[in-house]
């Protein structure tokens, strides 16, 4: 297990019988009973009706402003606003994937594809597959796709064995982390389209049609309303800021927390708590991070509605103290500092190799 120097969908929780003694006596089972008895797993249809309605209205208002303004450089302000809205749509799609909104898988998939594929050009099926594997084994270097060494390296062992872009970038990845996030929006679109070639993706035809409609409508709107130069500038600002916002939303959650390899796989509760970091903050933090600032609670109870996570934190934190499980929580700025410090530290083998060559 790799521990940083400065730190101590599944769409539903699939592991109520996992971990240190499956069954009613496990640590997680006892915690789950407390959470259930507190009513924290009950659905919040009113909250989600208001949230989905507000996000749709703001997204529509952004595109309405785009059409009303016409061919002007003020459109770059609209691009920044729509980047924020695309991030909020992605967070709604995340909640839909975890069935926080609807109990029905069919309804969740329908709305998830509308928000993901059609709304922001991100394949719901591709992301769902990737995110499910992440939730099952967070920060496991062989099993979690979010810590695979494609571009960045997440442990010294990955750094020693790095090849290609990871070897080129890894030595200075802490400095390059935020600049690389400007490409994350483009990466989501490209990965979504590439995933359509996979025969394992469900409803590839529907996914492809919705992605095609989004791309055509998006590009057509830009080049019909704006001059070519302004259209390219709008696209760059919009997609780069979208990538930065989305990356900043997810980066504090696990980056720089312990990683696992091979059979080093503790029970469910410890697997989720030890690899996750909570971010302190008020209601604005809750809104901007979509509730993912309560990452520990979210990983323990993926189907828990977002507005219940704040209350669940009190229960989970107290329970972890009772059973002696480290519970890591920090401020937003420090969460990025911890992540970047970890990225710099694990890149040392690459820097050392360059000095020796």
The average pLDDT value, as a whole number, equals: 91
What Rg do the Cα atoms give? 21 Å
Unreliable sequence segments: 1-24
Oligomeric grouping of the chains: single chain
Strand content: under 5%
Query: How many beta-strand segments?
Result: 2
Helicity, as a percent range: 55-70%
Task: Report the order of strands and helices.
Answer: HHHHHHHHHHHHEHHHEHH
What best-fitting shape do the alpha-carbon axes yield? globular
Q: Helix tally?
A: 17
Protein name: Delta fatty acid desaturase
GO biological process, one term: lipid biosynthetic process
Transmembrane segments: 52-70, 76-98, 208-226, 232-251
Keywords: Membrane, Transmembrane, Transmembrane helix
Which tags fit this structure?
FA_desaturase_dom; single chain; oxidoreductase activity, acting on paired donors, with oxidation of a pair of donors resulting in the reduction of molecular oxygen to two molecules of water; two-stranded parallel ribbon; Fatty_acid_desaturase; 17 helices; mainly alpha; 357 residues
């Amino acid at each position: 297990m790799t521990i940083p120097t400065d730190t101590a969908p599944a769409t539903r929780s699939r592991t109520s019988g996992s971990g240190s003694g499956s069954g009613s006596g496990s640590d997680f089972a006892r915690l789950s009973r407390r959470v259930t008895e507190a009513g924290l797993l009950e659905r919040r249809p009113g909250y989600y009706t208001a949230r989905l309605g507000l996000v749709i209205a703001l997204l529509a208002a952004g595109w309405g402003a785009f059409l009303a303004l016409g061919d002007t450089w003020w459109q770059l302000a609209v691009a920044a606003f729509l980047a924020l809205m695309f991030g909020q749509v992605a967070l709604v799609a995340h909640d839909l994937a975890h069935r926080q909104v609807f109990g029905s898988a069919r309804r969740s998939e329908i709305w998830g594809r509308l928000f993901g594929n059609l709304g922001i050009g991100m394949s719901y099926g591709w992301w769902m597959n990737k995110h499910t594997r992440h939730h099952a084994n967070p920060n496991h270097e062989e099993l979690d796709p979010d810590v695979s060494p494609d571009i960045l390296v997440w442990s010294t062992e990955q750094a020693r064995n790095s090849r290609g872009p990871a070897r080129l970038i890894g030595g200075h990845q802490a400095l390059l982390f935020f600049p690389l996030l400007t490409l994350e929006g483009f990466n989501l679109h490209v990965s979504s389209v590439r995933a359509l070639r996979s025969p394992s993706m469900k409803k590839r035809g529907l996914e492809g049609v919705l992605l095609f409609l989004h791309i055509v409508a998006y590009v057509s709107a830009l080049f019909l309303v704006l001059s070519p130069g302004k259209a390219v500038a709008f696209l760059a600002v919009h997609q780069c800021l979208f990538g930065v916002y989305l990356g900043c939303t997810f980066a504090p959650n696990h980056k720089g927390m312990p990683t696992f390899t091979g059979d080093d796989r503790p029970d469910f509760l410890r697997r989720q708590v030890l690899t996750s970091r909570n971010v302190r903050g008020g209601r604005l933090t809750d809104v901007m991070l979509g509730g993912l600032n309560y990452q520990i609670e979210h990983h323990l109870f993926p189907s828990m509605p977002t507005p219940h996570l704040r209350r669940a934190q009190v229960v989970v934190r107290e329970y972890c103290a009772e059973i002696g499980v480290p519970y890591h929580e920090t401020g937003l700025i420090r969460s990025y500092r911890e992540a970047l410090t970890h990225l710099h530290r694990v890149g040392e083998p690459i820097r050392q190799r360059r000095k020796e060559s």
